[in-house]
């Protein structure tokens, strides 16, 4: 039996590119012999015609299937839904906007057959992105790399081929606030890097804004390292030592030089500085606490409106 490869596409309001995407991916997978393909779209609560277009595609092409989520859960969660419903021996994650060239899939399969479990595409450069996005992303990676113990891949997105064992592993990780890119690293297994040039979006606009990116960055840090918590303890420790020494200086001064009622500036700056540090530490603790709160509720990570036309509200266990 020929091996099945699932091409998994998270899609959120992609009505203007999805047909173009389909025709390009169709060409690519028609050119790859000896494999069967499944084209699994995860409709992440689109409010436009995305779902209708996917349904039309399914009518003419039986390789197309889709999971329709009950609302917009975000790409990270949409990908988990994709892992749950993918049937393939390997899964290729690809964006709907043609920023990830489908032509690379053949190469990914080649390395997969060589025994690699995670063949990921690394960007040679970042075309069509502003210098601000490049700079912030660079700073974020630097911070994350410094503070985590697992290796994080820079300039790598979700565009990759994963072996079935990676998919099964990812399905076990059911945190609702996900940073999938970190999870790929966390998994380990045999990884292979291939290089590509990321094109600008074919049409439509990015679903990311700085607020969302900022949240993803916080997700990345809080779900992979407790370093910020440690940092607050260190800060607290050193500042206490500083405060202790300063206390002795004050006592000494008072005993030997008397006590003139002044020192308003120093008092004020110490109070403000300590207040700032305390608020910051509280905020850090709050970020972690909030995540503990969210995970302890043990809600299903996503809900499904329909799968290939069937209404189904049970959370998937296994195929
Ligand atoms: N996406 C999604 N849910 C969302 C946001 C995005 O499924 O809430 C999908 C989107 O349709 C696309 C992919 O994730 O296929 C990447 O999104 P986008 O191109 O907006 O991100 P960028 O390439 O700018 O990082
Ligand atoms: Mg994109």
From TrEMBL:
Keywords in alphabetical order: Membrane, Transmembrane, Transmembrane helix
Protein name: Glycosyltransferase family 2 protein
Pfam families per record: Glycos_transf_2
SUPFAM superfamilies named in the record: Nucleotide-diphospho-sugar transferases (SSF53448)
Record has Cell cycle as a keyword: no
Domain Glycosyltransferase 2-like: 6-167
The UniProt record lists the keyword Membrane: yes
Ranges that cross the membrane: 234-255, 267-289
